[in-house]
Every structure is written in structure tokens, then in C-alpha cells.
Amino acid sequence: NSPSVVYVTSIALRRGFFSLNAVEIPQGTGSGFIWDRQGRIVTNYHVISDASRVRVTMADNSTWKAVLVGAAPDKDIAVLQIDAPKHLLQPIAIGISKDLLVGQKVFAIGNPFGLDQTITSGIISALNREIKAVTGRVIRGVIQTDAAINPGNSGGPLLDSAGRLIGVNTAIYSPSGAYAGIGFAVAVDVVNEIVPQIIAHGRVIRPGIGASLADERLARQLGVEGVLVLGVEQGSPAEKAGLQPTTQYRGEIILGDVITAVAGVRIRSYDDLRTQLERYKVGSEVSFTILRDGKSIDIVMRLTAIN
Description:
The protein has 307 residues and is mostly beta strands.
């Protein structure tokens, strides 16, 4: 798998203290891996999020300019494109993560602290962990491993004993910022679902109802348990279903509908709602339980694509 693993360098523009001229400086480094023979590279979104320019160094030490194809910040995944010759592009073997077991042997390849092509081994120490993405959203179903993962490993592959990709190394749990025995990887089943969408559309096509919704902090301030509807878009499933938005009359806030369940699953926050909707595809008909004027009602809406 070594030829499939790359070194990702993000470069930022900074203005000099005594000059108005912009100067390019290295901002961060990470790892990535070759997805296909068209030159697509998968890495972590946080590795390249603030970069003005990105370089990818291959296993043969050749360096290539990378262009961002698209990203899924909520899952900390980004896809880059390089124009390297096909003989250098060896895609990584893709595995599955739904049948992983705690105690299973795993390997991590990456570039910790800039030390290229380093491999570490360990086991899966837990499954279905939750970590926060840079957007603040929770990434669920994360793999926990004790294979050594350090700064620079981010975006690199986590492999099973057959050398197949089972996760993308994303984070470590460490007060000092160095390896402390706990690392996390986004499961490959999630990666395998979103990367083709990013390649095709430049983003992940998310199902939704076409409504603006209150975040958890605002809902808590208003004493609402569930997801409060702030507004509905014209022609959206929310409007067609008759969802009532929050309004203001003579300085008083009149609360709109509150989404309390999706297909019978209790919803307590916006993150809960997003997680449940991600289980469905655009066009699916889904039942929502709505709290309106103190009464619960069920409404069926056909999900639409949202940005």
C-alpha cells in the first residue's frame, strides 16, 4: 500500500509585518491516499481547510499541485485532484467497516511529524465512537484504535490485516497533542458513500425538508425540546406539508412547529435530525412527528436535496 499513500502539504498566504506583499508559508501537513487512476486523493478536510494552495508528494518523492474537488466538512473528508501520470497512481484497496470487530489487527500508514511512509500497528480498541468535526457536528460510527497516530497521520489510511482500507485516520485523544494510545478513524463505509458524491457533484447531496431550523442553543433558550422550525422555503416539502414557521407579532415570538421524531426515532437536537435524515436518500418519503400548539401530529414529507 505504500505507493498509494501520499504526503499532503497545505500552504497559506500571509502578509509580511513590514510589507504589504503576500508570502507563501507552509501551514500544515498531513497524509492522504490515492482513490482512483484519475488522480483523486482523499484526505482530511481539516488538513487543507485554510490552505490557499495544496501540494501532494507521492511515494517516489515527486510533488504535484493539487486542486480541491470538494469536501464534506461534517465528516472531515476532502477530495483533491492531481495531474500525475497513471503509472504513479495506484489506488488503495477498499474494504468494509460494518463487520469490524474489537481486537482486530490494524495498521496505519502516514507521515507523522513529516517522517514519510511510516507504518504503525495495533488493534481496534472500540467501535461506534463519536468525535466532533471542525464544523462542530458529531461524526458517528468512528473507529478507535491504539495504533500510533500522530500529527501528520491525519488523512492517512487505516488498514486491516489484508491491506484493505477500513478507515481514514482523523484525530487523536491527547492533552499534549502527541500519541497517547487512543486514535480515531472515520469508517470506510462512510467514506465510500460520500467520496463518489464529492467527485460527481463537488459536495455531498444531503436530504432535507427545505426549512430553516433553530440550533440547539437557541432551542434551549426558548425552552424547546426538539428542533424548532424558524422558516420554510417556497415550494419546499416543508411548505407543501404545511409546516408552521416561527413568527413575531408586536415584539412577541410566536413559536412554530417543533420536530420531535423522525420515523418514530426521538429527536432532541439539530444534530439528531441530521443524523436520522442521512439514513435516507433524496426522494424518500419519511414520517415526521410535529409538536404544534401542544399537540403531536404526524406529517409525511418527501425529502429534497439541500445545500
